[in-house]
Specification:
This protein is of the alpha/beta class and 512 residues long. The protein has a domain of 177 residues: FAD/NAD(P)-binding domain. The chain contains 18 helices and 18 strands. The strands form 4 sheets. Strands 1, 2, 9, 10, 11, 12 and 18 form a 7-stranded mixed β-sheet that branches. Strand 6 and strand 7 form a beta hairpin. It starts with 8 loop residues before the first strand and ends with a helix.
């Protein structure tokens, strides 16, 4: 494509998150001139690492921390030199009598853990059957993620009608209560529906169902893997490949206005103006509307409390289980279904939940490369907490966020044989307001808004490439390439890949 319109660059990308880098790489490799405009000092958005604790050489994944939905074929196609490690433990959920251990590859230890919790093997059998059926949905969807959106009917035809109804047609809580009897097992299943999504498991809008699906479709297995070197290693590789591909990256560049005309778009900042043939938006749809001077819709509201901890060592547990096993996967706190529903109800009525509910993850049990040599030679470990049902509205200021942190510490201490406070070398908490202030995500919503089904409804019109790829906006020269795209959300690269291919498809059709 030539610069026939006299524009400065063929494609300008607003927002320099990981999806923007993916889109830029594909477009630059196709011969287009691409410039990324990022308001922060570095690219990567939420997929970054940071030296979080003064005086301690530890490079933590500050916001996003695990990789699942990014297809391995995308990593290979981009030529990223990444190492993603599996964990032997999927989750550990402490309870009064011990703990529910779920291995990544479920074996005798998982079976016995279910039996110890429930007194029989029935619940484990139900667990295996449910996730085997969910796996058929994942297997049907995963191969489509780097292609134009499939029709719902196509995906439905490859899936058993019962599991389709349970996950797609009815509130997920109904299926959980029908299939499982134990409150803790129900909560562990339901948690994947609530990560970054503020909802009851019985919400009739089914936003919790969509969140659940996205957490289980990555590479057809849903396994969440640890990026060696932290999330900054992912962004670092994307930036390296983007620059080698000829992408121009402009940082410290705050966009104040986007103007879209029939033949070009203009992006203006405090001290710059860029005229381009096309614009890809890596910012949230709500933010894009503000930049365009449009009346935005309802502002998204994030729902998570993110806490990063550096410990001198892992704490001992009341159950007596080895902490290196309990914290090797996801350590669940306050996640019975009753607690999850109660916390949602309290927060929905404007109150911070009395009992914290969330997940803890220890990066350094799998990868100690994020610690400096001196720290790595000790027993030091990092913990990352992702709290549920802590929406923007109930954490209006630092005092409220500090209280949420205190409740999280108290909930964790309930399961420990020793208080965790003396082991803490550093702590950082990020409320939705903190995330909004740091990253520009409206309401601190990590998905830029509610997740959408990764397919086209059977009656949905999709004529243009942007519609078929799920990256369209109300203007033909603006495509959505970030988490606000149809298959956006999480560290996946899907939004960037799909926006780039939608534009390339359009340009190829024009040439013919």
């Amino acid at each position: 494509m030539s610069d026939s319109s006299g524009t400065d660059v063929q494609v300008v990308i607003v927002g320099g998150g990981h999806n923007a880098l993916v889109a830029a790489i594909y477009l630059a490799r196709a011969g287009l001139g691409v410039e990324i405009v990022e308001q922060l000092s570095q690219v990567g958005g939420a997929a970054i690492s940071a030296q979080t604790f003064e005086g301690h050489d530890a490079l933590l994944s500050r916001y996003s921390y695990l990789v699942s939905v990014m297809p391995q074929s995308l990593i290979d196609d981009l030529g990223l030199q990444l190492e993603l490690l599996s964990r032997d433990v999927a989750s550990y959920s402490p309870h009064a009598g011990g703990g529910l251990l779920v291995e990544t590859v479920e074996g005798p230890a998982t079976r016995d853990s279910f039996r110890d919790l429930t007194g029989s093997h029935a619940e484990f059998t139900a667990w295996q059957r449910f996730y085997a059926e969910v796996g058929t949905i994942a297997a049907a969807i995963a191969p489509t993620l780097l292609s134009p959106l499939p029709r719902a009917a196509t995906v439905r035809a490859a899936v058993d009608p019962t599991i389709w109804a349970d996950v797609v047609d009815h509130p997920l809580g109904t299926a959980i209560e029908r299939r499982f009897t134990h409150d803790l097992v129900r909560g562990v299943v339901g948690t994947d529906a609530l990560i970054g999504t503020f909802a009851s498991l019985h919400d009739p809008t089914l936003i919790q169902n969509r969140c659940f699906l996205y957490h289980l479709i990555g590479n057809g297995t849903g396994e969440w893997r640890v990026p060696v070197g932290g999330m900054g290693a992912v962004t670092g590789e994307l930036e390296r490949v983007a620059r080698e591909s000829g992408v121009t990256i402009r940082t410290h560049a705050r966009v104040t206005e986007v103007e879209a005309r029939d033949d070009h778009v203009t992006v203006r900042g405090d001290d710059f103006a860029i005229h381009a043939d096309w614009l890809l938006s890596g910012v949230a749809p709500y933010v894009l509307d503000l930049m365009r001077g449009h009346q935005p819709g309802i502002k998204p509201s994030g729902s998570q409390l993110k806490v990063n901890l550096l410990l001198s060592r892992l704490p001992a547990l009341k159950s007596g289980v080895d902490p290196a096993i309990a914290f090797a996967g996801t350590f669940n706190v306050g996640e019975t279904m009753t607690e999850l529903e109660s916390g949602w109800h309290q927060a929905a009525h404007g109150a911070l939940p009395e009992r914290a509910a969330g997940e803890l993850y220890c990066h350094t049990l799998t990868d100690r490369s994020i610690l400096g040599p001196d720290l790595a030679a000790t027993e030091a470990q990092t913990l990352t907490y992702f709290g549920l049902h802590t929406p923007y509205e109930v954490l209006p200021d630092d005092a409220a966020a500090d209280e949420a942190l205190a409740r999280m510490i108290a909930a964790l201490n309930e399961h420990l044989a020793e208080p965790i406070e003396p082991l803490i070398l550093g702590v950082e908490r990020k409320s939705p307001r903190d995330i909004e202030a740091a990253l520009g995500m409206p309401g601190g919503h990590i998905f830029h808004g509610d997740l959408q089904w990764p397919w086209l409804a059977d009656a949905e019109t999709a004529t243009l490439p942007a519609e078929r790829w799920g990256v369209d906006t109300d203007h033909p020269r603006i495509l959505m390439c970030g988490s606000g795209a149809r298959r956006g959300g999480a560290v996946s690269g899907l939004g960037g890949h799909n926006a780039a291919h939608a534009l390339l498809d359009f340009l190829a059709a024009q040439q013919h």
